[in-house]
Amino acid sequence: MGKWKFILLIALSSLHISHLNAVSPEQTNLGILIFENKENINFINVALSNLAPPQEEAATVTPAPGQPAPEPAKKNLENDYFKLLKAANQTDFSGNMWYLQSNYTYAFRQLRGAQGELKNIFEVVIQKYIEDARSLLESAAPSIIRSNDNSSKALLRLGFRDLRSAEDLYTTGLNSSPHQFRYKLTLYKEGILTLRRAKRFAILAMIYSKTPDEDKPEYQYRSNEDLKEARNEEKQRNYEKVRDTLINFIENKRMERTVAPPGNPDAKPLDLLEQHDDNYGFITSKRLDLLQEANLQIKETEGAKRESVPPVPKFDEQGKATYPEEAPKK
């Protein structure tokens, strides 16, 4: 009998220890959701920051002796892109606060809500990217199609291929279940990356079509010594190489810096240098980091207010309800 008691005691002890070491599935799933929201916010921040209107440069005026320094230029944050990112960032922050307090029910509501807001932001961004990519490709097409430059035509063909692939990804995500936020975000993110590649092909096709034949590699004679020296030379990054070429062609009047959308002449022209920065995931010049600005405006108690119990009203002699945070109406 003592033997069976000992075995039962060991079994109960092992169950107790395994229970202590177990991880809550809800906690694990929320940890994954927090990581995905963070990655999606950081990814879409670059796109929203570049789509936002540029900041006005402050006039560099040297104050006279004894005069106060001029006030810095006011940040232009009154745009829909910043408001969308700010709302999603606030909801995600509130979910993280509840998660740290081990209140997984409230945390899931906030994090799931932030995921839905991010889904809406991704839809807006990918629609704008499709318009910009099509505008760049169609503006480069007329001169390239009528030329005998097969390399530029190949780059243009690759750009239209990626544009079509991104449109299919967008359509698939749009027609999927409205509550499959993670699936939609995955498709939209892949579509945005594909559209950035399509815009890179469009810019490369423009550059190659404007390059004289004597400057193209296939028309240049190279000896074995030249090839050996080229291997030893430090390679320049593609981003810097394309940017330097764009600046050179723009300064020499071979290319225009802005491209007007062919299908919509009233639309804002596209800046090739800004598009190039965005294609490589950089925030371009004269733009604010919207996520950094949104973090400065986070309200720590916003999530608690959403989930808190409504305040108890007080009634006056006439039966009108007055809440503690509200001033009595006259």
General description of the model:
The structure is a single chain. The radius of gyration is 29 Å and the shape is elongated. A hairpin with a 5-residue loop joins strand 3 and strand 4. The model is unreliable at 15-25, 58-62 and 326-330 (pLDDT under 50). The N and C termini lie far apart (82 Å). It has 11 helices and 4 strands. The chain has one domain (25-53, 77-304). The longest helix has 42 residues, at 104-145. It has 330 residues and is an all-alpha fold. The strands form 2 sheets. It has a two-stranded antiparallel ribbon. Strands 3-4 form a two-stranded antiparallel sheet. Helix 3 packs across helix 10 (290-296), helix 4 runs parallel beside helix 6 and helix 6 crosses helix 9 (272-279). Helices cover 64% and strands 2% of the residues. It has helices at residues 2-21, 25-51, 80-100, 104-145, 150-175, 181-210, 224-232, 238-251, 272-279, 290-296, 302-307; strands at residues 258-259, 270-271, 314-315, 321-322.
Biggest sheet, spatial arrangement of strands:
1-2
Distance between the termini: 82 Å
User: Treating each run of at least 4 consecutive H or I residues as one helix, how many helices?
Assistant: 11
User: In percent, how helical is the residue content?
Assistant: 55-70%
Low-confidence segments, ≥5 residues, pLDDT <50?
15-25, 58-62, 326-330
Characterize the largest beta sheet: strand count, sense, and whether it forms a barrel.
Answer: 2 strands, antiparallel
**From N to C, what is the helix and strand string?**
HHHHHHHHEEHHHEE
Mean pLDDT: 81
Determine Rg (CA atoms, Å): 29 Å
Overall 3D shape: elongated
Number of E-type strands: 4
Strand content: under 5%
- Integer count of domains: 1
